[in-house]
Amino acid sequence: MADIRELNQAIAAGDIKPLYLFYGSERFLLHQTLALLVKAVAPGANPFNMQRLNGESIGLDELLLDANTPPFFTAQKLIIVDNCPWFANKKRNGNDDTSDKSDPAADDLLQYLANPAEGTVLAFLGGETVNRNKKLTKAIVKAGCVQEFAPLKGNAALLWLDEQLTEHGINMVAAAKQQLLLNCEYNCTLINNELEKLALYAGERVITVDDVQNIVSSNAAASVFNLADYVAAGNLAAATHALEQVTLNEVPESIIPRLADHFETLYIVKAMQRQGYTTKEIMTAAGKNHPFIIEKSGRQATKYSEAKLQKALQTLQTADRKIKSGVTDAMTAIETAIIQICLLAR
Q1: Cα(314)–Cα(309) distance, rounded to whole angstroms?
Q2: DSSP assignment, residue 26?
Q3: Which fold is adopted by the domain 220-344?
Q4: H-helix or E-strand spanning residue 167
Q5: Is the pLDDT at 121 greater than 60, yes or no?
Q6: How confident is the model at residue 194 (pLDDT cuts 50, 70, 90)?
Q7: Do 154-215 and 2-148 have the same topology in CATH?
Q8: CB-based contacts of 307-310 (< 8 A; 24+ apart in sequence)
Q9: pLDDT tens digits for 267-293?
Q10: Which residues is 338 bridged to in the sheet?
Q11: Using CB atoms within 10 A of its CB, is residue 46 exposed (0-12), middle (13-18) or buried (19+)?
Q12: What CATH number does domain 2-148 carry, 3.40.50.300, 3.40.50.2300, 3.40.50.11320, 3.10.310.10?
């Protein structure tokens, strides 16, 4: 995120490179940066200062002709090339081909990248990955900017969310921010869409955790996390209601393994925090990507001793065996396990 922020600041300040290659799975962030580039180089996006081409259909000869044509009536022009195939690995006999040999026309493009036309800003939009070892990619690194837009994690996600809240004039309590990120699985497109709904729902007031839980659809991980939160608090009534909500989208048989994974995380977090390990080290051991999950798990784990967490895991394992052996139906086994674990937290 730091690199993306620095790139955005540079573009906004008018520090424009002649070449850009943007790629990655987080397309919302990519298009935010692209919008800044359009605003800086081609305000108004008229035909004299901006072209948008499809890399899958345009020939390199045509692309290079456009790139070498001086801009009309403006100091700079922007050419955006979508769906660029020239920077990714090509498949050869089912294997990745990392060389540049299979595309002779790429030599002409390579020559252009080594000496871009004055007045032309060329922005290539790749897929989720590019091959950074290819000569073409290295040429853009040397003369311009290659930027990956990967999903945000941890503090970077919070920082980005704060920027969006400021931009939209929305106030939100810290816990609600974390809940929103979790519910949206840190997907920036989903977060942006949900912010619009939350703003309409809350109006001028500060958005709370309850607002997020009422308005934003929960993914499976967030729903089970909320269920485990109530179980860890020993709140049987709330846990029962949360279980009903989870079963609207998940088959009962899948809930026990998810709860078991969650309580295993609680055990790891509690044991490692007692031994003085850092959040980053605990994240690695628990196989979790976000500090928020570790922090919230740490708070949940305070309700239990390590022995009680082991007992909770044994309870879930017993329930799982009963379901798989057909001794009892899934919902009865889950409800019984939840009651037993709620009693442990008291």
Answers
A1: 9
A2: -
A3: Zinc Finger, Delta Prime; domain 3 (1.20.272)
A4: helix 154-168
A5: yes
A6: confident
A7: no
A8: 308/344, 308/345, 309/263, 309/266, 309/267, 309/270, 310/267
A9: 999 999 999 999 889 988 988 767 777
A10: none
A11: exposed
A12: 3.40.50.300
> Cβ-count burial of 275 within 10 angstroms (0-12 exposed, 13-18 middle, 19+ buried)?
exposed
What would the CATH number be for the domain defined by 154-215? 1.10.8.60
The pLDDT of residue 213 is 82
The pTM of the whole model exceeds 0.70? no
**φ, ψ for residue 90, nearest 5 deg:** -95, 150
| Amino acid code (one letter) for 27 | R
Q: What is the pLDDT of residues 51-68, one digit of tens each?
A: 999 999 988 999 999 999
Size (the chain), residues: 346
For residue 286, what are the CA distances in angstroms to 32, 46, 102, 291?
A: 33, 52, 43, 11
Domain locations in the chain as residue ranges: 2-148, 154-215, 220-344
